[in-house]
Structure formats: structure tokens, C-alpha cells
Specification:
With 73 residues, this protein is α+β, with helices and mostly antiparallel strands. It folds into two domains: 41 residues, no CATH class; 32 residues, no CATH class. 26% of the residues lie in helices and 27% in strands. The termini are far apart.
């Protein structure tokens, strides 16, 4: 299976993306030197106030409002 990997060049230290298999030998796109795969940071969006994921905060608010209306009946 082919995936997109982040790779760092061993000579010019440039970070680029490479498309290939895990067993492939990657090359730098700038200077054509050998490149090593690196672990890239996870991209996630957190809500600014509580630090929760936005979907989780919205779901909690919805369930909390539903529970409040049930208690009033």
C-alpha cells in the first residue's frame, strides 16, 4: 500500500512529502540525496476554552439541554 510520508533530507535538512511504500528508499526532492522518514505532528482542532474537540463539546451541550428539558416535565 502506498502512502504519503514526511521525509527529511540527510544533507540539506529539507522536509518534504514523498509518496511510496514503507520499505522504499526515499530521496530528497531538492538535492536528490537520501532522505529519512520522520514522524509528523498530528493535525487536530481543539476548542479554545475547554480544550475539547468541537464535536464533543457540541454533543455535550445538546445532551445537557435535552436532559434539562426532561427534568422540567
Amino acid at each position: 500500500m502506498r502512502r504519503i510520508y514526511d521525509v527529511r533530507c540527510t544533507s540539506c535538512n529539507t522536509v518534504t512529502e514523498a509518496f511510496g511504500r514503507e520499505s522504499d528508499d526515499f530521496r530528497c526532492g531538492v538535492c536528490d540525496s537520501p532522505a529519512k522518514r520522520i514522524v509528523s505532528p498530528v493535525r487536530s482542532k481543539l476548542e479554545g476554552v475547554s480544550g475539547d474537540f468541537p464535536g464533543a463539546a457540541i454533543k455535550w451541550e445538546r445532551e445537557h439541554a435535552r436532559g434539562a428539558t426532561k427534568d422540567k416535565r
